[in-house]
């Protein structure tokens, strides 16, 4: 099967809804479904979190960051306190990050795995920046911005996992497979994961989207976060470097000192969400 045939095969499967997830992803999805239940008691939520050691560690770490109410003299040291502090919506965002992260687990090809690890690092930084921008600049729901940042590249993670089956699929063809990922595969993967339309629509609009002035929407938040993320997506050949401060329209929205504070806060949050290694 040549590259074009492989692209067509993957796209056709996606359109038919034939998207298969690794066993590890399915297990986390069951956790996500349980937490989505409005009747899920906090004791059940804590039990579910403790059943996933990675999630438990990240929940406590996130609760101790300044962006989520930490930074005090007495750090959070247990899951119960952490869940109470960050709340269910932020916990759901962490579960989503675990889902996204698990896609890279079955990649064996070293080059593809390196791309997946860079993509994960980009994702955590972008999600954290989106959260801080939402709180301090755009006024959209910060938890929604965090969640959208985490899942904005889920289609790319899925395609990387599938590329392991088709050697050379993603070599030197970023524009073509990027369009395939964002226009076809990403939409179907997000549908399979039950991503809310308000989030999936904003993610879809990132391709070719324009930043409003002043920025005030989820799309604006994601576009800015993508530009300010210190680690670029290895799959995005379209991101252009930002002009120096003082030569950008966004300078009228916040000053350089505010931007530095946002990026510093986001860096701490991204670190709490997990390192680049896919385990």
Automatic annotation (TrEMBL):
Domain HDOD, residue spans: 21-209
Pfam families associated with the record: HDOD
Entry-linked PANTHER family: PTHR33525, RIBONUCLEASE Y
Protein name, UniProt field: HD-like signal output (HDOD) protein
């Amino acid at each position: 099967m040549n590259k074009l045939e492989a692209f067509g095969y993957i796209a056709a499967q996606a359109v038919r809804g034939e998207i298969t997830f690794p066993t590890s992803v399915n297990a986390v999805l069951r956790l996500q479904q349980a937490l989505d239940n409005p009747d899920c008691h906090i004791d059940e939520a804590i039990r579910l979190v403790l059943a996933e050691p990675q999630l438990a560690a990240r929940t406590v770490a996130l609760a101790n960051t300044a962006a989520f109410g930490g930074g005090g003299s007495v750090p959070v040291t247990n899951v119960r306190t952490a869940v109470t502090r960050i709340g269910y919506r932020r916990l759901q965002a962490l579960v989503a990050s675990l889902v996204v992260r698990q896609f890279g687990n079955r990649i064996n090809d070293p080059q593809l795995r390196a791309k997946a690890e860079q993509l994960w690092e980009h994702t955590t930084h972008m999600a954290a920046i989106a959260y801080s921008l939402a709180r301090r600049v755009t006024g959209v729901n910060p938890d929604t911005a965090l969640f959208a940042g985490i899942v904005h590249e889920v289609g790319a993670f899925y395609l990387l996992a599938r590329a392991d089956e088709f050697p050379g699929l993603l070599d030197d063809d970023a524009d073509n497979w990027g369009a395939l990922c964002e226009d076809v595969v990403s939409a179907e993967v997000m549908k399979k994961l039950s991503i809310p339309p308000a989030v999936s629509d904003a993610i879809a609009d990132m391709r070719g989207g324009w930043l409003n002035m002043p920025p005030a929407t989820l799309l604006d938040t994601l576009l800015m976060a993508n530009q300010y993320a210190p680690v670029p997506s290895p799959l995005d050949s379209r991101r252009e470097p930002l002009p120096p401060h003082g030569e950008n329209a966004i300078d009228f929205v916040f000053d350089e000192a505010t931007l530095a504070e946002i990026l510093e806060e986001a860096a701490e949050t991204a670190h709490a969400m997990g390192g680049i290694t896919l385990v």
